[in-house]
User: Which sequence fits this backbone?
């Protein structure tokens, strides 16, 4: 398995296809949540696409991007069903945090997390901020990373 980090312009057509297919398969089909999955953040110059490739198939993915002048964010965090429960999500998030620290100048690192993943994200050092809200019919919680 091979981890990669690329800008939009550096992605091959096949990598982009595999990323979008995985995101649609899980976020729209598996979670039964029709919403505009593809947006301009994907191709913003500072956005980084972090993904795990095995046998030319992308099996895990996260999008690291600038949310505001002083804030970086991680989104579209996903692990294929064939790798879930194997610690890949922890590895993915540690790599995504490192990617933001390396590639995106920021004072704060935030995420919009699905509420059922609260323990997962708090275990990584994220803390809830504000009230829960519905995003495309799914309960979410804004969280920010607290560093020691």
Assistant:
């Amino acid at each position: 398995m091979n981890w990669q980090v690329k800008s939009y312009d550096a992605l091959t057509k096949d990598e982009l296809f595999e990323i979008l297919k995985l995101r649609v398969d899980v976020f729209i089909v598996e979670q039964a949540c029709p919403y505009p999955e593809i947006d301009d953040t994907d191709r913003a110059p500072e956005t980084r696409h972090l993904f795990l490739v095995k046998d030319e198939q992308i099996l895990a993915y996260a999008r690291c991007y600038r949310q505001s002048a002083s804030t970086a964010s991680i989104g579209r965090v996903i692990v294929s069903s064939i790798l879930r429960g194997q610690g890949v999500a922890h590895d993915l998030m540690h790599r995504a945090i490192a990617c933001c620290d390396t590639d995106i100048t920021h004072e704060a690192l935030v995420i919009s997390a699905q509420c059922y993943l609260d323990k997962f994200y708090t275990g990584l050092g994220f803390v809830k901020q504000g009230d829960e809200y519905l995003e495309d019919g799914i309960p979410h919680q804004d969280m920010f990373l607290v560093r020691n």
Notes: The CA atoms of residues 21 and 91 lie 21 Å apart. The chain has a mean pLDDT of 94. The radius of gyration is 15 Å.
